Amino acid sequence: MAQRVPYERMLRLLARCLMDRRFSPDRALRCAALFAENSLVGIASHGLNRFPRFLEWIDNGWINPGGIATRVSSHGNLERWDGHLGPGPLLAEQCMQRAIDLASPDSLGCVALRESNHWMRAGSYAWQAADAGLIGLCFTNTEPNVPPWGSVEPKLGNNPFAAAIPRSDGCHILYDGAISQFSYGALETAAQQGKRLPVPGGIANTGEMTDDPAEILASKRALPIGFWKGSGLSLILDLLATILTAGRSTCDLGSQNAEYGVSQVFIAVGARLIDRTASEAIERTLIDLHTARTEDTSSVRYPGEQLYARRIENLRLGIPVDPAAWDDVKRLACE
Amino acid sequence: MAQRVPYERMLRLLARCLMDRRFSPDRALRCAALFAENSLVGIASHGLNRFPRFLEWIDNGWINPGGIATRVSSHGNLERWDGHLGPGPLLAEQCMQRAIDLASPDSLGCVALRESNHWMRAGSYAWQAADAGLIGLCFTNTEPNVPPWGSVEPKLGNNPFAAAIPRSDGCHILYDGAISQFSYGALETAAQQGKRLPVPGGIANTGEMTDDPAEILASKRALPIGFWKGSGLSLILDLLATILTAGRSTCDLGSQNAEYGVSQVFIAVGARLIDRTASEAIERTLIDLHTARTEDTSSVRYPGEQLYARRIENLRLGIPVDPAAWDDVKRLACE
Known about the structure:
homodimer; about 325 residues; alpha+beta; Hypothetical Oxidoreductase Yiak, Chain: A, domain 1; Ribosomal Protein S8, Chain: A, domain 1; Wheat Germ Agglutinin (Isolectin 2), domain 1; seven-stranded mixed sheet; two-stranded antiparallel ribbon; 12 helices; about 15% strand
């Protein structure tokens, strides 16, 4: 990972690939920006490294480049929208913006989006709300990839969930995580590097818990966070998404040849509710967290704390890229 | 646990104790019903066994028997309420009912309640919404009792969260769990019985993960679900509760002599959104879950599946009680 690429360079290259695939120039640029931003904040697995697969899905007809979300029905400040199988990142950005509008200035807005596609990084859209001064929450269902607790067969999704709490200096608090303890991307990376996981991440074919990522990739038995608890949370997130959207469930997605048409929920909480009292309470909590005693000289970080610093550094120095992944995308752009 | 007590008998005994403590007869009965119901569904730790401590808190002045929630402000279908340090179970029931009213018939309602008290079992109020045909969600913050990931000092709450998805036959899906892998009640019970935990539940004073409940009670280092993930989720739940209610945070609660004045959030989703299509999707998912392959002859259960069956059985046969706990309450009622 010695190579660094300027953000603008990555942005233009990705946008060009999308324009070659019937994206309008402005939509190509927005979608490319969401991918490049993921690499910029250090999540290349959902940025540059994932981009070739995204193009493949467009070429397979599973993603409709021109698909824009349209409103299906309105229920107070909860709305149902249909994504018409458009590009997940653009649909998600559009629907979080709508949730922000519904929540402004001091209420709560919820958009339930069906017929969507993989949005890449959940945190992008929660952060979007935080950048607008609101609390942002979002979650999606996925195809079955986690066995329910007590079972050996993947029936639950890992259903990523993100939440952002805004701070006036832009260093928002951001939780962003799947229900599985480790994503399949993280397992693959660790297996390639021959590394063990820091905690058990799945159950091997022997029936024993293991921290060997290769054994988990072989058994397809990733552990949910909190064992039976994550198993239950996954079901709840899936059913919430399915009911609110009137869209496809994880079970429905499992009967398809690929993961398209997922169900997603976007929630925003109005900016005026985050007044000075609230901001002071947030800062008091973060100071308290930072001063928690540790066993060594390290200090506790809040979720998302490193993201902002990494973004600034990578904007200045360029985005670190896996040279092979970068070459792949250059080839796809016929450079 | 050989002894069984009829539900009505337990209800009357608990209600009498509350009337002795300035609860009006109707409020004594409702509050007693919430405690008795917890024992009825098999969660005695938040029912009969907890009741003496509840009375103690009233006697200490931390719970105000006459405290009723009043509305502070209205923001569309989100409302802020103040519990005036009333009895947690009654406040929670009142505020979930208000969220149900706000959500009816086909929208979303949210009530943020500050100055509340321990509501005993989160699942009670999510279930309340499901019994009314709505989706119910609720969460609360708590005093600091879980160290943030990387720290040895409790700074986060275990912030219980519950979600219920209604089913027409009354066998609702119910997730109900704290952010810690095991509650302190569960750790104490296991330690008394000399049992090991089924999975590691905390970090011992040696710095090693352990499944010995006594070691965790000694170190006060309970593990959050999903390690760093639960640590992040706990912070998010606390800040959401604090901001939405404009109430006390876990950090604020930590500077008090006891855990009173907690912040709680109640969300309901309107019944008309759970139409036939949604109900069919729910049932399809549960059938899929029940048929997941297992390593033995057991079958996978959905969260809350045992609760309903246990309730029916205990209504018929009487509620199993710990004789010592039952005697304690009888003594408190001067029987």
